[in-house]
Amino acid sequence: MIYLNGSYMPVEEAKVSVLDRGFLFGDGVYEVIPVYGGRPFRLGEHLRRLDDSLRGIRMESPLDDVQWLEVFRQLIDGTHDQYLYLQITRGAAPKRDHAIPVGVKPTVFVMCSPISPIPPEGVAAVTVPDIRWQWCHIKAITLLSNVLLRQEALDRGAIEGILIRDGRVIEGAASNVFAVLGGVLTTPPKSHELLPGITRDLVLELARANRIPCEERQMTLAEVRQADELWLTSSTREILPVIRLDEMPVGNGEPGPLWARLHQLYQTYKQHLRNP
Ligand SMILES: Cc1ncc(COP(=O)(O)O)c(C=O)c1O
Q1: How much of the chain exceeds pLDDT 90, in percent?
Q2: Is domain 123-274 classified as CATH 3.20.10.10?
Q3: 187 C-beta closer than 6 A to ligand 1
């Protein structure tokens, strides 16, 4: 079952107008919220980021927090690990016009899907130029550049593209990036250049709570090529160790000790949600 504009229905029966601005212009935003033990993970943080994304495209949330939670409750299926995908577009206006229409009802779509297991042996990544627009802090559904960059990574035998802008590491095509540089867990600061990842914030929070040295600062590609460890973070892939970057081993070519520590802390944190 999925949720579309106030109704629950099988996905095959869900229909959206061809005049929907999501379809015509990619005019909308989305969220991805993991669910553990039947409970949405970091729900408040995800809903605040959704509000920020909506404000960034001159929209307001069509549902309040209580209403969102009710929709999620209806869709969450049992207690296995899953994720909610939520998308809001500016809706279907009577004619195709770039200008933002007045009085159009947004289209609201939510579905819940299983989460795939994470490969603990680590993955390969490649560097790609950051060809995206300049408001990457908005979780916009307009993802054509991310799609092309991810596919380039797959074509080159890797699972993720790490985006480079002016010689700096920005983030992954669908993830944030952490590097261990001289024993310090390092990630770029929040800005318009990257998505403020909910997993990124939790990793920093867990590191600080456990007195693991960490820093938010710009990282050059040259520095990252010398990193002892490199990780990708996202809601569905948690903390993923990168063991090869552009076909060269990262560190000793295996998931590193700091990754093992943070992975453990992250699993313990998740477990609290499953068994409060
Ligand atoms: C471009 C980009 N950066 C970062 C992330 C990670 O964000 P989060 O940890 O909130 O899933 C994502 C997630 O899909 C993303 O698409």
Answers
A1: 96
A2: yes
A3: no
